[in-house]
Structures are given as C-alpha cells and as structure tokens.
C-alpha cells in the first residue's frame, strides 16, 4: 500500500503540475519561488536518502564514480536536447525530467525495499515538490510555444506513467539485487539529480525570482531536513 501511494504521489505531481501550467494562471515570481523551494528540499533527500545509504553499501570510489557518471550522463543528454529541441521550448525541461526522473524513480523503488516508511515519505515528498513546479513550467512553455493543450497533457501523462514504471521496476526487479548494485543505482541517480538542479532547476528559479530564490532554497532545505530528523 505504501509503495503504491508513494509512486502515485511522485508521478501524480507531473500530471497536477501540467494541468496547473496549461490551465492555471500564476506569476513568474511564484513559480520561481516554488522551483527554488523544491530544489532545496531535493538537495537534502539526495544526500540522506541516496548518497549516504549508497556509501554504506559499496566502497567510496565506486559510489563517487557512479555519482559522477550520473552527472555526466545528464549533462550530455541535456546539451543534446538544448541543441536539437531548444532550451526554452518546454521540451528541454520535459526531457530533463525524464532523464533524471528515470534513475531517480528507480532509486525510489530501491529505497522502498528497505527504508522505513517515514524515510520513504520524506524522499517522495521532496520529489513531489520538485516535480510539481517543473511540470507546470514545462507545460506552460509548451502551451505558449503553440502546442495544443490536450497534446501537452497527454505527453505529461505518458511521462508520469513512464516514471511510475521505473519506480515499480526498481521495487520489484531489484529486490534481489546485491547491495553493491543498489548502491551504484542510487549514486548514479543522485548524480543525475544534482546535475539537473544545477543546470535546470536553480537557474530557472533565479531568473524568475532572483530576490527570494536564496530564501526559498533555504526553506526547502530546512523543511526536508526537519522531515528527516523526525524520521
């Protein structure tokens, strides 16, 4: 039951965000604040739910190597997307969400195998907070670029289903994997997420709300840290 709720919550944020972006009306500053807040929360979860557990299951050099590989892989794909799709088309942000979302959700499924319920909820809450404004921004950019609203929504529904599938695969297929394998997947996902924060999330947040972006990040970090301390 917990697994289903966590997966629905994290992937459902993409659908809710897309609906918000297509049909809602919100200021750029509010969007920037929420994106910065979500990025801050995700920093804590990356460290405490992905990297730290990975370092306890595998040797440090392997964890760091996988972490770096995740960052490099995301960066290369992100550069290709910017050149082929367009950085500001909405498609780039969608592809970025898929690129870091697949290993992120694989790792979420892995975490659900052994983590305490409160820890799983803390990680899923951070992913939810990150996915919601990112999906809203991407869907809004697609709509503004001339995409039909129903096509934008269908694309984000497909993305949500894809990431849900990744979480299910992580939970079911990797349940019997070795601790070392799980550690490499977690650290690779952590690298991809960190790279996406640096190239997609925080720059966007600063462009939209440069006055309060730093405070929003700090609030996100504080909330996520408090949730993990309670856990």
Structural overview:
This protein is an all-alpha fold. 88% of the residues lie in helices and 0% in strands. It is built from eight helices and no strands. The longest helix has 30 residues, at 28-57. The two termini are 19 Å apart. The mean pLDDT is 80.
Low-confidence stretches: none
- The Rg value, from CA coordinates, equals 17 Å
Mean pLDDT: 80
Number of E strands:
0
Helix fraction by DSSP (H/I, runs of at least 4): over 70%
The profile of the biggest β sheet is: none
Topology:
Blueprint: H1 2-23, H2 28-57, H3 60-86, H4 91-114, H5 117-144, H6 149-172, H7 179-208, H8 213-230
Helix pairs in contact: 1-5, 1-6, 2-5, 2-7, 2-8, 3-4, 3-7, 4-5, 4-6, 4-7, 5-6, 5-8
Write a short abstract of this structure:
The chain has helices at residues 2-23, 28-57, 60-86, 91-114, 117-144, 149-172, 179-208, 213-230. The chain has 231 residues and is mainly α.
Task: Output the keywords.
single chain; 231 residues; mainly alpha; 8 helices; 88% helix
């Amino acid at each position: 039951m917990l697994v289903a709720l966590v997966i629905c919550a994290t992937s459902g944020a993409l659908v809710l965000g897309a609906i918000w972006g297509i049909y809602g009306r919100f200021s750029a500053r509010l969007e920037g604040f929420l994106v910065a807040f979500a990025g801050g929360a995700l920093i804590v979860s990356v460290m405490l739910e992905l990297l730290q557990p990975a370092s306890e299951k595998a040797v440090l050099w392997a964890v760091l190597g996988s972490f770096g590989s995740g960052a490099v892989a995301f960066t290369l794909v992100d550069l290709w997307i910017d050149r082929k799709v367009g950085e500001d088309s909405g498609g780039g942000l969608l592809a970025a969400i898929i690129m870091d979302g697949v290993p992120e959700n694989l790792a979420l499924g892995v975490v659900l195998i052994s983590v305490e319920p409160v820890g799983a909820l803390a990680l899923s809450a951070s992913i939810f907070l990150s996915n919601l404004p990112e999906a809203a921004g991407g869907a809004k950019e697609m709509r503004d670029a001339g995409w039909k609203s129903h096509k934008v929504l269908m694309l984000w529904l497909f993305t949500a289903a894809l990431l849900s599938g990744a979480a299910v695969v992580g939970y079911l297929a990797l349940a019997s994997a070795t601790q070392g394998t799980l550690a490499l997947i977690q650290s690779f996902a952590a690298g991809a997420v960190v790279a996406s924060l640096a190239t997609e999330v925080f720059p966007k947040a600063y462009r939209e709300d440069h006055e309060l972006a730093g405070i929003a990040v700090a609030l996100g970090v504080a909330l996520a840290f408090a949730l993990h301390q309670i856990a």
